[in-house]
Amino acid sequence: MQHGKYRFIVGFLAVPLGLYTLFVVWPFVQSIYYSFTDWTGLSPDFEMVGFDNYARMLDDDIFWKSLLHSVMFALLVPLVTLGLALFLSFMINVGGRRRRGGPAVTGVRGSGFYKIVYFFPQVLSIAIVALLFAFAYNPDSGAINSLLRGIGLDGVQPLWLGDPGLALWCVMAVLVWSTVGFFVVLFSAGMASIPVELYEAALLDGASRFATFFKVTLPLLWDTVQSGWVYMGILALGAESFAVVQIMTTGPGGPDYSTTVMVLYVYQKAFRDGQAAYATTIGVALLLVTLAFAAVVMRLGRRERLEY
Amino acid sequence: MGTMSAENGTDGVGRRDLIKRSAALGLISVPAMGFLSACASGGGDDRKKAGAGKKTAKNPLAVNETAPMEFVLFDGGFGKEYAEDAVKIYETNFPGAKTKFSATQKIQSTLQPRFNQGTPPDLIDNSGAEQMDMGVLVGKNQLADLTPLLDAPSYDDPSKKVRDTLRPGIVQMGQFDGEKVWILYYAYTVYGVWYSRKALASLDAEYPKTWDEMLAVCEKAKKKGIAGWTYAGKYPYYIPFSLYPMIGKVGGAEVLDAIDNLEPNAWKHPAVKACFEAYYELYRKGYVLKGTPGLDHIQSQTAWAKGKALFLPNGSWVENESANVIPADFDLAVSAPSGLDDGDKMPFGTLWASGGEPFVVPAKAANAPGGMEQLRIMLSEESSKNFTGKVKSLTAYNGGTDGVELTPGLTSGVAALELAGDNVVNPRLQDWYVQLQKEKIGVSGLGEMMAGRLTPAEAIKKIQGFADEAAKDSSVKHYKHQ
Q1: A205 Cα to chain B: minimum distance (Å)
Q2: By the number of CB atoms within 10 A of the CB, which of A205, B110, B230, B407 ranks highest?
Q3: Which domain holds residue A140?
Q4: Any idea what the CATH number is for the domain that residue A235 is in?
Q5: Of A30, A39, A256, the CB nearest to B443
Q6: Spatial distance between the Cα atoms of B475 and B465, rounded to a whole number of angstroms
Q7: What CA–CA distance (Å, rounded) separates B247 from B244?
Q8: For B10-14, B295-299, B385-389, which range has the lowest pLDDT when averaged over its residues?
Q9: Can you tell me the ipTM of this complex?
């Protein structure tokens, strides 16, 4: 048996590993290679330039701003989204008041309806969501400022996306709005698998809702929360943040670089300025940030797994 | 289970073995790096170019009568019909040639790989959001010199060269450094201040020629609850459409040239300062529509078309772009920017007009003469009229408006060009240094100033800093006015 084992393992792994290498690892290797060249992306001629692109990147104010914003996206958006999703799914599944004759543990009234409503944004593509919110944030005739005017707050008419102090928050809020529903459903599924006896025991001991959440629900849901965190962080570093910033913001990336993120900067350098090599350099930096994020989350999140 | 492996004494692949083997795999992959360069540079020079055809009066560019010709058009605001019509003429003239025409909005995604492989089409309308950077294409010798086309006899009149049938500035715009002409801008855009004649008439006002008159008109409008100005707040690089020609009018065209040439302290010229202060005055006195910094171009154009604001800095495409919101009795007009006062260096009427829709013939095209011949056909009076009639825009062909029914905006554009005469300025920042013009000067400089977050002095200092940075940046190619 022993001598056939390699062939056996290789036989199973060859195809997936091959695909992974071809479509994931190979492009990484290529971009790292290109980051040492002066490739424009528009012509087949280029030369090696050593670490020039990296030196330039470290000296580039816009790069540092985009890095800062990307890190903020990766930390804040998952925190708010998951926090909100945990709260909402707890209320939907566990947080309800006990009703006569009903089960001991239940959600708030109308929770089935809420669950569907929260999931709605997930059905829309992020591009459509971004466009809709761009209209809503229109300071002249958008929904938000019209509402403010409608309730008599004529003096409070923020510029939203036109204000460097607000723009980044506006964009993040859209990302939270559009993704929270997915996690509500994910966490609801997780909570449904927590045995009811644990809740009943906690209730018998007189635990408050607050205590139940932190002492029972959260620890038992930890694995789901952790993978949700990584998933959300990668979304916030990558495609989703690009879409909302590119579609919604001034410039895009503005006003005054207040919303630029690394993915947007990669795109602009590669496809607007014809500096593909420099773009891949920023891409390599983005790769490092993403890896670091995943590593940090995995390490911080390491806990004893609870069996139940 | 079978026999145990003698070396490591464990079942199957030992951990140490695994590490050793993956290290070996890593070593193999290193030489593979050498092949990487092949990814970006497939194809190469092995592609056959079509041989020359017979040079005749009808075929001055000696196009190979049977060589296929491929034409890729940007499918934007001007549509594709005008180009399809021109391709039909090509087919009639060269019945033996196969033509391939395609229109796309994704110029870059479609064509970038083909440039990298060395197999680009013969004629490209390199336009739209996915425009390929012209400076890079020129710098990397990817474009063909269009001088043979410009020196060829024109389609309608063999005694006139093509270059003599074009509007002012078209040939210069196609040059980057030196005499060679890389780009032919087919559409002709008039930039300036767009307004409704009807709205101005209802205020008993005429288009203001000086800034004091401008402020007076805005004050009148404000009393009626109408804002003086609005602009694409999210894309503040629309402001230069009226601001730059104003700077040219106040300080002379050489101030604009110095700015384009990224000369030190170009932005500190008194004319720049005066014009910045004039525009800032619009903000300070509350003449800019509230919320403007948060509007995109469509939203600002819509607010303006609804009569919420009088003036809008824009280009002649606005008539087509906002056609569905501009009321029928709007009486759209464009004017050259107001000046400061009588001390201005250039007369009222000084206008920014320049080419749009850049057409290029790739250096590695298989049938470059065919691409140029297609352009020569498009620059005929008939094709030009066809374009103007269909898409409400002028072309690079000087004339071609007789007998075509012009819309109000286009009529006033033609009148503005006539008034300007030779006083046409042509600032080049937007095609030479896109990033500098759009996100640095536009968004971070002018946008911030017009939102009231920078004073004119601060804006100038910031913009001069950006320009100095760009002048020093070795990763962008630098250009100078000839």
Answers
A1: 49
A2: B230
A3: 60-300
A4: 1.10.3720.10
A5: A256
A6: 17
A7: 5
A8: B10-14
A9: 0.75
